[in-house]
Design brief:
Length: 418
């Protein structure tokens, strides 16, 4: 780990990448893509079938990340090239997001391909972004800095999303023909925003040089991957946390990715669902910061338990929800805990792992999240098709939250791997 003093400018530059990439997770992943996929690219397709198609697209992108993440982390730690990999995945994600502008109406297959590649770029960049947390924050500040990143992400994602929503509501004011063109332009604005606010991290954040050694980096990466698998299994504390994280983050990510699709299946207007997403973003900004301070004062595990309980209540409530007003209230409740459960998971894991292998271990961290995201969307989509009832598809998430809380019991938050 770097011995350089941690500066505010590095922390801000690092956290601004959350501001940058959250434009994709908010405007594209959670916001416009599910609506546009169902109403524009899958026009005329039954609701349950388009839900299944979206679930498959999410799951396939997760499988790709599962296969790539540990190898990329091992190579990046060896070569000290985390920022280079982060930039490469960012460019891939941004270019594919912009490419959605050119996809014609009814061409759901091409839309799914661009979306999957953009999602791989987004998730791949996070492996290296998360790993750089150790280089910008002292050990005692990990919870606060991690929460600060998520808070900026909620604010930045919300600001651009609000602008994009304004374009869809009044396209004429922006010189656009209709709402469909406004949504397509929004994909381009996300790409520009994402690249623009990546620049501070590339210029300001320092990372230590890796040990390059001799031989081919790819071969060496595979060798380290095998060694890391064995090491993770040997570190009981880290292994237990990864299993717990795998379970509860499955539920969290599935709610994030499928909430709008679920609301559409219940017959709620798309405009109301977009408003609900804005509520999540702007509630999530201060809530994530507060959550980080509570994690320092009371310990991260207590904060994670609280988030799991709230999400379980949200899922149970969602099966009985009947009005848009309830969806708004639910969005506010999710906003209170979503950033907190994400940021405390990241910072607790950063405290448990060997710091000199952060990219390598964060590759596994992201694997657990993405491998979980293979199951969640597929399960929701398959259950919706099998039962012809979108409400029942949520109930399986309660099992995942329960298992996450159970495995979390065995994690010692005070113990760090040597």
């Amino acid at each position: 780990m770097s011995n350089q003093p941690k500066s505010r400018s590095q922390i801000w530059a690092w956290a601004l990448y959350d501001w940058a990439n959250s434009a994709f997770s908010t405007t594209v992943m959670a916001g416009f893509f599910p609506v546009f996929f169902k109403q524009y690219w899958s026009a005329g397709t039954p609701v349950t079938e388009s839900t299944f198609q979206l679930g498959v697209a999410n799951s396939l992108s997760s499988i790709i990340i599962v296969l790539l993440a540990p190898l990329l982390g091992a190579i990046a730690d060896r070569g000290g090239t985390r920022k280079h990999f982060l930039l490469a995945f960012t460019l891939m994600g941004a270019i594919c997001t912009a490419g959605l502008y050119a996809v014609e109406k009814g061409d759901w297959q091409m839309a799914a391909i661009f979306y999957m590649l953009a999602t791989v770029g987004f998730a791949g960049s996070l492996i290296f972004y998360d790993a750089l947390l150790i280089n910008v924050a002292h050990h005692d500040d990990l919870h606060r800095v991690s929460a600060f990143g998520f808070a900026l992400g909620y604010l930045g994602g919300g600001v651009l999303f609000a602008f994009n929503v304004a374009m869809t509501l009044a396209p004429g004011l922006f010189g656009l023909a209709d709402a469909a063109e406004a949504v397509r332009i929004s994909f381009v604005t996300v790409a520009v925003w994402w690249i623009l606010f990546t620049v501070p991290l590339m210029l300001k954040v320092h990372e230590p040089r890796g040990t390059r050694g001799e031989g081919n980096a790819l071969v060496a990466g595979w060798r380290r991957l095998s060694a890391t698998f064995r090491e993770v299994r040997a570190l009981r504390n880290v292994f237990l946390f990864l299993i717990a994280y795998w379970c509860y983050i499955d539920g969290v990510d599935t709610v994030i990715r499928m909430a709008v699709d679920y609301g559409l299946a219940l017959g709620f207007p798309s405009e109301s669902l977009i408003v609900a997403l804005l509520i999540v973003q702007f509630v999530g900004f201060p809530a994530a910061i507060i959550y980080g301070h509570l994690g320092v004062k009371y310990g991260p595990k207590l904060g994670l338990y609280f988030g799991i309980v709230v999400y379980s209540g949200v899922v149970a409530w969602g099966t009985q929800m009947t009005t848009v007003e309830e969806f708004y209230v639910m969005a506010g409740v999710i906003g209170l805990v979503q950033g907190g459960i994400q940021s405390l998971s990241r910072s607790l894991y950063a405290r448990l792992i060997p710091p000199e292998k952060s990219a390598e271990f964060f590759g596994f961290f992201n694997i657990m999240g993405k491998f979980a995201a293979i199951l969640g969307p597929l399960l929701v989509g398959w259950t919706a098709v099998a039962t012809e009832n979108s409400r029942l598809s949520l109930l399986s998430l309660l099992i995942l939250f329960g298992l996450g809380a159970w495995f979390l019991r065995g994690v010692d938050e005070r113990r760090r791997a040597a």
